């Protein structure tokens, strides 16, 4: 099924995800909330996400037959393909970030209500200025290309790719997992994953069918369902 987008534009909101969750049950699938600015944008684990004017801050209401944590990959793939449309090579940093040349350019956050709805938040640095204290770890499309981009064109491309990947995900989720493997920077890289029970270091060898990360510690292979991944310095494609 192809999703029809219905876009709600806001000048400012605390969080597009929070706004979308508040209207999700009575709104049709494909409702998109886009704000020029977020005053309380958030990432995983409630972390703050700087959201000044010039970036793409949006949340999409989806109503799949069942909730699935692998949906986060749909948003990440849409961002990577959008970047490619503008000549930028992006990589998925499992599970929900997109990096370019070792710096974060986008993040995806999925939240929802079991069997009711999923809200997919996407934050993509487009024309926004990256604060000086973050320029070692974050970048934007404008910084990479050296020019401002047409904001609506970026938005439309993200939604077009999102609709395509969402449709593919509904038909066969494993095809999406395979696409993530092709676009991730983790496979065969030395990584450390920090999670609530401690940390695991080793070589990332695979992303499994359920979306988990498989790490070879040198002694055992460990399946990681969640956590913060750091990658040893090296080439990013």
From TrEMBL:
This is Biotin--[acetyl-CoA-carboxylase] ligase. GO terms for cellular component: cytoplasm. The keyword ATP-binding applies. It comes from Thermococcus waiotapuensis. PROSITE patterns: BPL_LPL_CATALYTIC. Pfam families: BPL_C, BPL_LplA_LipB. Coiled coil: none annotated. Keywords: ATP-binding, Ligase, Nucleotide-binding. Its EC number is 6.3.4.15. GO terms for molecular function: ATP binding; biotin--[biotin carboxyl-carrier protein] ligase activity. Transmembrane segments: none annotated. It is an enzyme of class 6 (ligase). InterPro entries: aa-tRNA-synth_II/BPL/LPL, Biotin_CoA_COase_ligase, BPL_C, BPL_LPL_catalytic, Transcriptional_repressor_C. Residues 1-170 form the BPL/LPL catalytic domain.
